[in-house]
Design a protein that fits this description.
By secondary structure, the protein is an alpha/beta fold. Helices cover about 45% and strands about 15% of the residues.
Length: about 500
């Protein structure tokens, strides 16, 4: 029997994983034991030179959940996840669920997305990676994602990640993840940009194939990563063409079998220690393999097609008329120089934001947030081992009496502090009046200190180096816009230094 032919339902998959119940010879297994066809047997091929003005990969995850989405998660997602468990051997009941477990989604997602970004940085330069967290919201009874941080420059690929915490009181620290990998619609028309996904079914939101060519990777539709947990069944288009196994190939989507990452106790013990080095000792086979797949896939897509739509949008930020001429092909003699300048501005913008991303990544993995997450995960594993020894009924009763924080012992305070940090981000982002303010709130909340925000970036153009210093995105955008206008209008730029 093939792995895909016996996929469990989304509800069954979520709960069986959470409860630690194996599916025997069916679809779900640990990554280490997964189908070899979905693991690259060689290291990624050498990448072509990077596309000027563009990032290679944008990494996105759920960082903020709006009150409307919180209500929908509590009302439907947790009960739907637990429904199937009522009749299984674990003998969980409705009272065993954790109705506010959605509060763990941002911290789980942020931590593991940071792990993925660092592991991807072992395959490609981190300067080519962009961190772009999302807001989970609700429209018309369905979950929708909106950007918390959306960078303006193009990205060749986008990796969207959804981390599903346990919806009942079992505290087994397995990582449950669904994800999608997308490029621009023009680079993979048959799939509207989708290159790979790991939901539990091959489903896609309805899309118009004629519109796909105009969509950049951040905007293409992708398989619903939280399928089955809303108020009613959505309407889907014809399933997209599937590719059985790796590597990625434009025109088909690799549909990964569901797996989960069950960390072994020795690694949890090592990573939970205060002196753990999350730079050299980080290990996560599922995310390591995904990083390898993405790095290899970058060499299999057409970079020009992957960035064309986003590049046109970026040009329009500085010069709408130029963007229109670029789209129509009616370029003027001076336009080539303008496009070169805009490319330099995009690279300067990427460099400034990359400094923020490095600081954020350091906080999420190396700072108190990362240390608290790993300490809590270790405590969860120790509690899980106790559960295995004392029996499920006694363990669940104990968890119900003591509460999660008490059962986790000294790590409970770390977990509470970590969640308080995430909650502060929730409140800050929801109070922001525009996306630029929300982006700044994210950078400040997650450790991009003022030193990082005051770094100087340089724009090299026509024999001069123009230095730009900005303490926030608004200032950066204003400085870059002023530079473009002064250069293209003939006025002398500010803060210039002769190129040596």
């Amino acid at each position: 029997m093939s792995r895909r032919s016996c996929f469990p339902s989304p509800r069954l998959l979520s709960i069986l994983l959470a409860a630690g119940i194996g599916l025997g010879g069916c679809a779900t297994t640990t990554f280490t034991d997964s189908d070899p066809a979905y693991r690259l047997q060689a290291e990624p091929q050498a990448l072509p030179a990077a596309m000027p003005g563009s990032a290679r990969v944008a990494v996105r995850w759920t960082q903020v959940i709006t009150p409307a989405a919180q209500s929908l998660l509590e009302e439907h997602w947790v009960p739907n996840s637990n429904d199937v468990v009522w009749n299984n051997p674990v003998s969980l009941s409705r009272s065993d669920s954790r109705p506010q477990v959605y509060r763990e989604i941002p911290s789980d997602s942020a931590y593991y997305a940071a792990e993925f970004a660092r592991l991807l940085g072992r395959k490609i330069p981190f300067a080519d990676i962009s961190l772009e967290p999302l807001v989970l919201d609700v429209e018309n009874g369905r979950f929708v994602y909106k950007p918390l941080v959306r960078n303006r420059f193009p990205a060749q690929m986008v990796v969207d990640m959804w981390m599903a915490p346990l919806t009942h009181r079992n505290v087994h620290p397995a990582m449950q993840i669904t994800y999608s990998v997308t490029t621009a619609g023009l680079a993979s028309p048959a799939t509207c940009g989708v290159l790979a996904f790991k939901p539990v079914r091959n489903i896609m939101p309805a899309f118009d194939a004629q519109d796909c060519g105009r969509l950049e990777p951040r905007d293409v539709p992708h398989p619903d990563l939280i399928y089955g947990f809303a108020t009613e069944e959505p309407q889907f288009s014809t399933p997209i063409p599937l590719k059985q196994g790796l590597p990625f190939a434009p025109g088909q989507a690799v549909g990964f079998p569901p797996t989960y990452e069950a960390f072994n106790s020795p690694y949890l013990e090592k990573s939970g220690a205060a002196q753990f080095d999350a730079v050299k000792d980080l290990s996560n086979p599922t995310l390591e393999e995904l990083a390898k797949d993405v790095a290899d896939g970058l060499g299999r897509i057409d970079q020009a097609q992957a960035t064309q739509a986003a590049w046109r949008n970026y040009v329009a930020v500085y010069d709408p008329a130029l963007a229109q001429r670029l789209q129509s092909g009616s370029m003027q003699p001076a336009d080539s120089g303008k496009l070169q300048l805009i490319t330099q501005l995009a690279d300067a913008e990427r460099a400034w934001i990359n400094m923020q991303d490095q600081a954020v990544l350091k906080t999420l993995l190396d700072g108190d947030f990362g240390k608290s997450f790993r300490a809590t995960r270790l405590a969860m594993d120790k509690q899980y081992q106790k559960q295995q020894m004392m029996g499920w009924a006694s363990a669940i009763a104990m968890m119900g009496t003591m509460g999660a924080a008490s059962a986790l012992g000294s790590a409970g305070s770390s977990m509470a502090a970590m969640q308080a940090n995430v909650q502060a981000m929730q409140i800050a982002a929801q109070s922001m009046s525009d996306s630029q303010q929300a982006s700044e709130a994210f950078y400040q909340q997650f450790g991009a200190e003022i030193a990082a925000r005051q770094q100087v970036v340089e724009v090299s153009y026509s024999g001069t180096v123009v230095k730009v210093q900005a303490e926030n995105l608004g200032k950066l955008y204003a400085e870059l816009t002023q530079l473009y206008q002064s250069r293209t209008s003939g006025a002398a730029p500010k803060k210039t230094a002769r190129k040596k």
